[in-house]
Amino acid sequence: MYDGPIIDTHHHIWIVKNYPWLTAAPSPKIFGSSYELLRHDYLVNDLIKDFGGNNIVKSVHEQAHYNPPDHIGETKWLQSIADQNSYPNGIVGYADISASDIACVLDGHIKYPNFRGIRQVVAWHPSKPEWQIVDRPDYCLSKKFHLGLEQLEIRGLHFELQGFPNQFNFFSKLITSHQSLRFCLVHGGLLVGDDEVNFDEWRRGIEMLSQFKNLYVKCSGLNVLNWTNNPRSLEAITRQYNAIIDMFGAERCFFGSNFPVEKIKISYDTVIKLCKLALIERTESEVRAFFHDSADDFYRLT
């Protein structure tokens, strides 16, 4: 199996007092309703301990819904952590893309050298209120949202797009309107189930999106939608990740752990092992691209 360097493009660290969703009474989230494990400080040394001996050479921190009025505060804090440690090497922050002050917020973020882009979750699924993060499935197609993405483009930033297969038609329209802006589809396109019906819907949608050369896919969050008591199987992960690489090419796919959220189900060592086994039939160059080179290029980490 692959034993080369790995870049983890999707993890979090936090001091819980700065994250209201962690201090509030537990309620159903996209990853389920049982998450006591997460309701504690998770600092950079905890992350490095979880990295273990897996040769994680660089990492990217994904915004984790910091104190809502202070979006830039998370980036400022993370940069201070990076300045004193080896991680994170890249920072994906939050901004309300539709807000009238989007340009000002982005200018605040880009003062910090490790800042690379924005994630604003626009996920909306018809069957579960817990999976309705915005108020309608086509939220991303508003005029204000388009204008906000233009501000990202002006500054050479990228946008991390998180939503469900039922929204992929809207994502296609969005990307069509911004073909010089780089997008990243988070958590492998949020496959909602490993049964044939859900897999086929996801596969058809993501195949449509694969035509856009400015769209990349982050293969992260193996169990982010898994509300069962058991982790997803190697067979299910193998089928999903190989389908993504077949459609996008390994040069537009990269690995992310989604730690510590994934820790609810499995260890970091197991995440790495499953992903390596899932790609066991791919070429050496494809696996190297998936675990390191594609992320290094997309996040401009070198």
Automatic annotation (TrEMBL):
GO function terms (MF aspect): hydrolase activity
InterPro entries: Amidohydro-rel, Metal_Hydrolase, Metallo-dep_Lactonases
Residue span(s) of domain Amidohydrolase-related: 7-301
Pfam families: Amidohydro_2
Family, per entry: Belongs to the metallo-dependent hydrolases superfamily.
Name of the molecule in the record: Amidohydrolase-related domain-containing protein
